[in-house]
């Protein structure tokens, strides 16, 4: 598996930091979410929406950009599993009431919680 470049990593770290600041999400909420304990938290939903939008995974209207998400997959370990997961989540046509809800639903799906 290939890895993301230092430049890409810097962009994602910058997006993360900016989105933590703008959403007000608690780092502990992020940590537990990435460990699989995903809670209905508005600041977390806003963080995911911000991160997905800034990273190009979601457009300003809240539509998921699967082409961009899938182009990122080869940079991740376990890319085959993740690509299958993305395809499954895409087929579910998950749409929330707001862009943040849509981002949250997709995050849950990608984490295997839907």
TrEMBL record:
Main location: secreted
InterPro entries: PBP/GOBP, PBP_GOBP_sf
Any Gene Ontology biological process: sensory perception of smell
Family classification: Belongs to the PBP/GOBP family.
Identification of the protein by name: PBP GOBP domain containing protein
Any GO molecular function: odorant binding
Record's subcellular location: Secreted
Superkingdom of the organism of origin: Eukaryota
UniProt entry keywords in alphabetical sequence: Secreted, Signal
Record organism: Asbolus verrucosus
Keyword NAD: no
Keyword rRNA-binding: no
A Gene Ontology term for the protein's cellular component: extracellular space
SUPFAM superfamilies the record matches: Insect pheromone/odorant-binding proteins (SSF47565)
């Amino acid at each position: 598996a290939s890895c993301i470049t230092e430049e890409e990593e810097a962009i994602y770290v910058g997006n993360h930091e900016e989105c933590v600041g703008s959403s007000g999400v608690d780092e502990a909420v992020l940590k537990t979410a990435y460990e699989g304990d995903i809670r209905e938290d508005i600041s977390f939903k806003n963080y995911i929406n911000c991160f997905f939008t800034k990273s190009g995974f979601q457009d300003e209207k809240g539509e998921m950009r699967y082409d961009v998400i899938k182009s990122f997959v080869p940079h991740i370990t376990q890319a085959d599993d993740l690509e299958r997961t993305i395809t499954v989540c895409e087929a579910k046509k998950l749409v929330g009431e707001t862009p943040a809800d849509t981002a949250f639903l997709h995050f849950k799906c990608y984490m295997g919680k839907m």
